Every structure is written in structure tokens, then in C-alpha cells.
Amino acid sequence: MNLVFVSGGGGTRDLARALAKRAPKTAYVIGGTDDGGHTRYVRQLFPQIPGIGDWRARCLDLADDNPAATLARYRFSSAKLQQELETELRAIISGEQPLAQAVEEGSKKEELLQALASFDVQRHSAAAQLGTPFPLQGGSLGNILLTGEILLNGGAVRPGLSRFANLVGARDAVIPATLGNYHLQTTMADGRTLTGQVWFSAKDPEYLKNNTVKIRGISYRTFDYDSAGQPQNVRPATPELNPEVREAIASANAIVFAMGSFYMSIVSVLMIPGFGACVRESQAPKIMIGNPTYEPETFGLTAARMARIVIESLRSSDTSSGPDSAYLSQLLFHNSSTGEPNRIPLGKRDLLVGIEVQTLPLLNAAGKYDSEMLAEKLVSFVV
Fold first, then answer.
1. Which stretch, 34-48, 75-89, 337-351, 355-369, has highest mean pLDDT?
2. Mapping DSSP to helix (H, G, I), strand (E, B) and coil, where does residue 14 land?
3. What pTM value is reported for the model?
4. Between 214 and 102, whose confidence is greater?
5. What is the Cβ-side half-sphere exposure of residue 219, based on CA atoms within 13 angstroms?
6. Which PANTHER family does the entry mention (predicted)?
């Protein structure tokens, strides 16, 4: 059973773990435009490396609780001084820090420490050359490890990601949507242009607090960072679809557009040229899991409107065209009262002609689906 998910790094975390028990061959197509949080600093120092944060997160979701994965899940304290954290990182690289000591001796530990050391050497060199510091406060050791693996592999993303997955004991199930180094630019309905995914990944970014403005659209860009870490020389870009994505979709028993960051994680992948054709040519069920609650990206949208955006995004990346049902066959949606605070309503069914709508109960008042029940429902489409 081959399921292919289009998702972000966190929106389907619990579902990914539930599916691992039922559909172990599930693959996750995830974009590489993340430039928020600590991933931003990685991209500033190493412009050739895409946004790795979501890839790292999904690999660690799929890893068991082995010592290497525990080490990769570690985050540096946000309350400590840089000098203290530099000492801590050196202790990890030398294998003296307790979490590093817990990793069993052998070739895997040797490679893990080598990747961390490679990152450390090259980040000092890059920081000196660019005049850009690399703060460790709040940093993900998993990001550092994954970056180190990519650097050890000559900057090649795919082998570096595969080796990272192997190190942390995760199945190599994450497929980058594109291997290029891209960012997203968002146009808001009030005319604002927000450059970078960081606006939507930061906690309560000023532009989006109490957001009451719809997103008009997103587009791909490349840019450089200036010495203050701000975008400069912003240029239009056309992303290239990773050939692995074509192969995965061609062999899929079901294609799932998962809940999560709707524009940043889902629509951004669907609009990559060639993706829509892959979906249209597949005979597998094409299933959208509707977001149950609002977030800044989905203000003012209904589930039906989001399904329409999914269809049109796929159609825009297809050199030919098919009926709506060639791009989306089922919409799974919550059955709670649309009058509840922050619940996304279904909306106009005339936007969903030819698309089957099935309802699912929500797990709790927080508005989450029951991951076990949702996993069973998805598996039922292909057995």
C-alpha cells in the first residue's frame, strides 16, 4: 500500500505516526521553502541549502525513541548566552555531552559526530566570510545534523536527507518537492506583499496578529540575505519538480492533500510545474483533509473554497487539463457545528460538484481530528 501525502512538517505529526503502523510505505512530499525560526539562520549562512526544517521535523516524527533521534530532537536553550551554548555544542561534537554519550558506539555514531563537526567548521567559515553570526539560542540540533549531512555530501540535498533519516532511525519517507533553493512571496488582499514564509511560521508576527485579510496568492522567489538577515535582490523563480515526486505519485494507491499550513505547505507544492499532470494522470483516489480550524493563512475561507483552490492550483501546474474530479475525488471534513468558535464551515456545495464529501468527528474542543480514526479512514480508500 503506497500512500503519498502532500503536507508540511508539523500539521500531520500525529497522523503520520498513526499511519506508520498501518501503511508503512507512506511517502511525504514536503516543500523546502521554510525560512522561519532557526532554519532562517541556516539559509543565511548556506544559501545553496533549501529550507530543511520541515524535512527534519517529519523524519523525527517517524523515528522511534532511539538515542540518536533523542539527540537530534534536542534544542538549545533560549535563555543561555551564546558562549555557553558554543561550549555545549563542542561537548556534543566531542561525544562528551550526556545525550551524545548515550548513542551507541560504532559507525553510525562516528558519522553523526562527523556531520556535526562538518557543520561547525563550515558555519564558522561562512559566518566570518559573510559577517553574519549564527546564534544557537533555541536552535534545533536536528537542523544542524541534517545540514552537516548535506555538507558532507557536497551540498547534495537528497543523499544528505537520506543519511539523516538513517541516522535517526526513520524510514526514508520524506521526498523534497523540489531540490532547488526557493522562497515564497505572499500577496495579501489589501495589497501588502510579504516576502518569505517566515511571516507565517513566526509566532504572532506583527503583520498577521488578529488577521482579517485574505491571502490573494503566493509565488516562488529567490533572494539573497543582507548582513541584517533581510531579503534583498528578490527575483521571480520557477521551481523544478523533483523527479522522485513523479515516481511516487505514479505508484501511489492514494494521494492525500493533508491539513496544515494551507498556502505555505500545501498550495505551494501543488503549483510546482508538472505536479498537476502527475495527479491528473494517476488513477488513485485524490483525498483532501479539510482544516478544521482557522489560522492566519485561511482567514475567510470555507472548506469548499479551499478545495476549489487545491483544484485550481493543480490545474495551473498541468500542461493539459481535466475535470475537477481528475484532481480531487474526496473531501474529508469535520462534522462539528459551524457555529463553534474558530471552526471552518463547509461552505457552498456547488463548488464541489463531482467531489464526494465525507464527515469525520473531531477529537476534542481544540479542533483536532482523531488521528487513529483518520488513519483508518484513509487506509479504507485503498484496501
1. 75-89
2. helix
3. 0.94
4. 102
5. 13
6. MATERNAL EFFECT EMBRYO ARREST 18
Query: Are the C-beta atoms of residues 271 and 316 closer than 8 Å to each other?
Result: yes
Q: Exposed, middle or buried, 101 (CB in 10 Å: 0-12/13-18/19+)?
A: middle
DSSP H or E stretch at residue 6: strand 3-6
Q: Are 46 and 92 in contact (CB under 8 A)?
A: no
Q: Letter for the amino acid at 30? A: I
Domain boundaries, the chain: 41-176, 183-234, 243-380
Question: Under a CB-based contact definition with an 8 Å cutoff, are residues 346 and 303 in contact?
Answer: yes
Residue with cell 481530528: 369
Q: What would the pLDDT profile of 144-176 be if each residue is shown by its tens digit?
A: 999 999 999 999 999 999 999 999 999 879 999
Residue 20: pLDDT band (50, 70, 90) is: confident
Nearest Cα to Cα of residue 30 among 215, 167, 178, 211: 178
Q: Where are the beta strands (DSSP E) in 295-353?
A: 330-334
Question: Rounded to an integer, what distance in angstroms lies between the CA atom of residue 240 and that of residue 262?
Answer: 21
Judge contact between 149 and 161, C-beta under 8 A.
Answer: yes
- Report the 10 Å Cβ neighbour count for 318: 20
